[in-house]
Amino acid sequence: MDVLDLARTQFAVTGSLHFLFVVLTLGLAPLVAIMHTRHAMTGRPAHERMTRFWGQIYVINYALGIVTGLVMEFQFGMSWSGLSHYAGDVFGAPLAIETLGAFFLESTFLGLWIFGWHRLPRWLHLACIWLVTLTAYVSAFWIMVANSFLQNPAGAVERGGHLVLTDFGALVTNPMLTMALPHVLGAGLWTGGFVVMGASAYHLFRRTADREFFTGSLRLGVVAAFVGSLVTVGFGYAQFGPVSLFQPDKFNGTPLAGLGLGFMILIGQLLQALIMFVLLPTVYWLPRWRWAHPILMLITPLPFLAAILGWLAREVGRQPWLVHGRLTVADAMSPGLTKGMITLSFVGFVGVLGLLAVVDYLLIARTVRRGPAAVTLGADGPADSTERAHALSL
Ligand code: HEM
Predict the structure, then answer these.
(1) How far is the CA of 242 from the centre of ligand 1 (A)?
(2) pTM of model > 0.70
(3) What are phi and psi of 94, to 5 degrees?
(4) Nearby residues of 289 by Cβ (< 8 Å), 6 or more positions away
(5) Most CB atoms within 10 A, among 98, 161, 228, 311?
(6) How far is the CA of 339 from the centre of ligand 1 (A)?
(7) Residues of the chain with pLDDT under 70
(8) Dihedral sign, CA of 153, 95, 69, 237?
(9) Residue 159 burial (CB < 10 Å; 0-12/13-18/19+)?
């Protein structure tokens, strides 16, 4: 592998690890907001417990995931300075807006939501989680604006050897963006729904306490996955329109891109059929059908896999271009990089991100295993403390 391939592989591996966190954040945020809305409207303790339990899982994933994003930004400066020189004036703006949004707005609203339990007025507290969801979606929008610009550099012209933005409207209505954004948001909802579904199936299979809690969660997870699958598949096929227009040979030119696309569609179609014809009827009429629960647990990671394959298809299919038709990946690489440098940073980044992913999984698995009684988010009432102490001692 030469230095260019090493740098590309590093970006692909770190990007994939980062996206595992992102896709779950995008899916869980609206689900927690919906649970909280039901709690605010009905005042029922069951809805409050559900919000706090799944909310804690959301918070764990967000806290670890935000760190993984830093590594991505860092790599632009380290390995791809040619991109900054040539297209930084256009590409840098949406990335900067996204970083400011994710770091400042989203985490501020999330902080208010976490510490606002039993302190903020009911509707203001609810507004915080909806603002978290909104800012997460706005972040996704700006990242997809930046990525779509690489797929089709709309709204910019070359002046003095680099790209300058001439049409902001064209940048944010790029046809490579308009179908891809809902596809990604749908994939997020699908993934979030599957995590809620798989974790609920675990408890129902083990016949732990809280059967009502997890039956309700299982239903919500499957319904979310169903809605997510409709959006994902619909906009997935719609993406072929702009792709055939701007990158007609995308999936024929590179075998890996075609393969990634082929498998993503296969997973998507099989899972969608399963959701529509088996899961939806089962969770409504036979939610305690025990033999189905291990299957639900086993298929939980599949939307994550499909999402990574989707990114592989989108990015590998664009080769050899970094900015399609304008700047090649080879020209974008920072001068003076050596194999040794990239190998060192590769090992470091993948080590850190891999560790974060494992810790994320373990913390989420532990939270799921302990169940709603052990949740700490929003648990500062005396009744909660007793319940929690009991659960932790088990
Ligand atoms: C089942 C039918 C599906 C179809 C027809 C479809 C179609 C596509 C196409 C054409 C692309 C590449 C677009 C480009 O290169 O610009 C893509 C990318 C992608 N897909 Fe899918 N897909 C499907 C299922 C899924 C599923 C199940 C997931 C995840 C749950 C997923 C997640 C992604 C992601 C994250 C990308 C990269 C971003 C994007 O281009 O939107 N896809 N998909």
Answers:
(1) 13
(2) yes
(3) -60, -35
(4) 282
(5) 228
(6) 33
(7) 287-288, 381-394
(8) negative
(9) exposed
